[in-house]
Amino acid sequence: MKRLKKARRLRLLAAWLAVAALAPAAALAAGHEIHGSNDFSITYNDVQGAGGSQSSLTEGTRYLEILNLFGNGRAGDFDYNWTVGTKATDDRRNDQKTFSLTNLQGRLTNKIHTITLGDTFEAFSQYSLNTAVKGGSYKFTPEQSHLPQVSLLYGIAYSRWDNFWGVDAVERQVAGGKIRQNIGPDFWIGLSGVQTDDHVRVLGGELTNHQTWTVDWEYRPIPGLTIQGESSWLNGDRSPSDGAPFDAYHGHAHKVVAVGDGGPSRVTLEYERVSPEFRTTIGSATPDREKVKAKWRYKYSKDLSITSAMLWYHDNLDGQKAYGTDHYKPEIAVSLKKPFARQYAVADISYKLDRAYSPVMRSLDHYITMGYRDRFGVLDSDSTFGIIVYDQNGAAKRKDVEFTYNTSLSSRHTLGRFVLKPSIYLGGWTHNDEVAENTDQIVEYSAGLGVDVPDLKITSTIRVGENRLLKEAGTDTAKTFAGANVFWRPEMLAKAQGMLYAKASVNDFRYDPNLAAGSRNFRETSVTAGISIQF
């Protein structure tokens, strides 16, 4: 059985690779366009210190090659295009494979009939299918409005092409189709069906098989008002582990959204109900949830906008739990341009309440965020300040206050052939835990300088700074960092839209000196040089 499945996957992959191999040849023979981009870089990483095992860098010299080819042309009455992308690297923290096929697609269309092979995405609906597959699709888009639009799809829901030749992943075969029919100029309705079958279990994981039928529609009764909806019914069975039998289950999901957009207002109303057993694998939904959401954006004037929203949702729809939890999340935000008669100023403030309630728990959390952007002479400033108050009673008690704050100043100066862009940044986070009676802080400060030479097409930046974590109960840490980037577009690479670049960074990590001296300290240095071209 496994041999048959493997042979089936290899045949499907061989067909896709054959298309990819023939498409460039056909394009060349017909004299059609082929373009590409290539980025090649070499990185040297050095990690020193007793705590070097904590570094995220791979030591030594490593390379990274990213190549993409694109083609398009016309064959008879059909337009076609194709793309092939690859990545090669010997850095396992960048990719687990030395060579990877990152994308592969071919498309043929005459505006009525469209065939796609390789990386294929057809969004049937939120619930039934909104995930890309490795496979193929056919789409019929009639010129006459009274004929239905038809879409067919088959493939395997792998996230990587490498999954076909050795990287463990569940083999999830997907087959489906959708018919969409216009019923007058203001109303359309669609019917879709999708079948998924899992064939290879990975690390004792769950296998599922699903049939999902969905009806979606859209109606525009008057100008400025759009009403959309979809309903989905699922029949499935699952095997939770090796040797376990398949258990059948059924679920359903429904959603209606109304959007009114006219004048200074935009209003959105949404209702959704998803049953506990609706477990979509290639769509998106949160099982066991009923929610109502309303949002109103009102532009009072060209400088003042007000946005308000309310979200309510709860679970335990079928009474399958001992109790359910209700959530209430109202919020309001105000954006004001030119406050205090300042031409370049923008002020924002928002408040959100998150209230959750159940028979055994109550929480009431407050979120306040304020922002202000302005220009003072040659200085541009951007500042934000936030407060979060957590208040939870029940089995897990929590009474915390978090403060976040940051500000940045920057400017731009032209001195002869140079453009200088200095900047400074100061930010931090403070957490007060009233239950544990301790306070933790993070403080970060840095200074940067950008240097551009426009006539030589050079841009560069350098930044140095420090990030400190100060814990009342725990280990203090500090990271001193410095980084520099240089990008150059020389004339000799102008035809290829080429760019040379270099990057360097140093991070020095230090821990509480009360620990064994230097037992966790380390320094990491990384230098990268590369070339990027388009052709």
Automatic annotation (TrEMBL):
Keywords annotated in UniProt: Signal
Source organism superkingdom: Bacteria
Signal peptide: 1-29
Record's protein name: Uncharacterized protein
